[in-house]
Amino acid sequence: MIIYENYCEAADFLRAKIGAFSPEVLLILGTGVGYLADEVENPIVIPYRDVPYMPVSTASSHKGNFVFGQLGGRNVMIMQGRVHIYEGYSAEQVALPVRLARLLGCERMIVTNAAGAVNYNYRVGDIMLISDQIRLFDPDPLIGPNIEQFGGRWCDMSDVYTAEYRFLAKQAASELGLQLREGVYFYFTGPQFETPAEIRAARILGADAIGMSTVPEVIAAVHCGMKILGFSLLTNMAAGMVKTAYVPGEVTQTAEMVKDSFCNLVRICLTRLP
Ligand code: HPA
User: Fold this and answer.
1) How confident is the model over 27-43, as pLDDT tens digits?
2) How confident is the model over 10-19, as pLDDT tens digits?
3) Ligand 1 centre and the CA of 54: distance in Å?
4) pLDDT number for residue 247
């Protein structure tokens, strides 16, 4: 269990490294957009392994660094690579960086991920604006004693992905001439991909995309009062939707193909977030 004093200790560690720098936006970079972190001006790079209580990324496509600096004219705290529950961490550990960001002053979060398309109207390479999320059975970071300093016990989840931010993202996409899908992200922990039956079930329950991340971080962010914008990069059709089985490397290959437009979209949104 991570207690409030532990979060404060980790935040103090980061504060000592970043000095007077004050981040406004937490940017969690999933597969495909990690290289946005390389564009940060005056970067201060802090490996996760140095930060007290911070879990370390083990997924090969994820670097494990916090990067603080300026991007798109904003003061950002970037997670270059994230950690997942399937790596053996608790939901609370996975959500820890969000709470650190909040302690450092971030009131906004942009989260991105790679996901499988569950909606038959979608195509590989599409970008989906996340309108809402579904977590039915998998671990929840708020289980356990509530930490009042972050938020109340029963937190409202009726406007998770801030409506104002979604409006702004749709406008930015249309200016870029980019078709933007909008739909519901359904969360399974993985690490195995889903069965066709699981995908059918998720579709019936309202899913448009499926993935193994984002939801624990987003729950913690809502709890501590952050405004959230989320995007899924649809790297493959989910299991059972196409004849060919999932091809290893498909996720990173698709991400590579669309990374320029995805990064442009994230950059514009970042600049404009109120
Ligand atoms: N399922 C779960 N997670 C994913 C997928 C998928 O099909 N594609 C990318 N991340």
Assistant:
1) 999 876 788 899 999 99
2) 999 999 999 9
3) 25
4) 72
Q: Whose CA is nearest to atom 6 of ligand 1?
A: 116
CA 130 – ligand 1 centroid, Å: 15
Domain ranges of the chain: 4-272
What average pLDDT does the chain have? 94
Query: Cα of 41 to ligand 1 centre, how many Å?
Result: 32
What CATH number matches the domain at 4-272, 3.30.420.270, 3.40.50.20, 3.40.50.1580, 3.30.230.10?
3.40.50.1580
Give residue 58 CA to ligand 1 midpoint distance, Å.
17
Is residue 251 lining ligand 1, measured as CB closer than 6 Å?
A: yes
Question: What's the maximum distance between 2 C-alpha atoms anywhere in the chain?
Answer: 55
Residue of minimum CA distance from atom 10 in ligand 1: 115
Q: Which atom of ligand 1 is nearest to the CA of 251?
A: 9
**30 or 241, higher pLDDT:** 241
For ligand 1, atom 3: residue with the closest CA: 211
Convert 108-141 to b/e letters by CB count within 10 Å (16 or more is b): bbbbbbbbbbbbeebebbbbbbbbbbebeeebeb
Whether pLDDT at 77 is above 70 = yes
Which of 14, 192, 37, 186 has the alpha carbon at shortest distance from 103?
14
Q: In this prediction, what percent of the chain has a pLDDT beyond 70?
A: 97
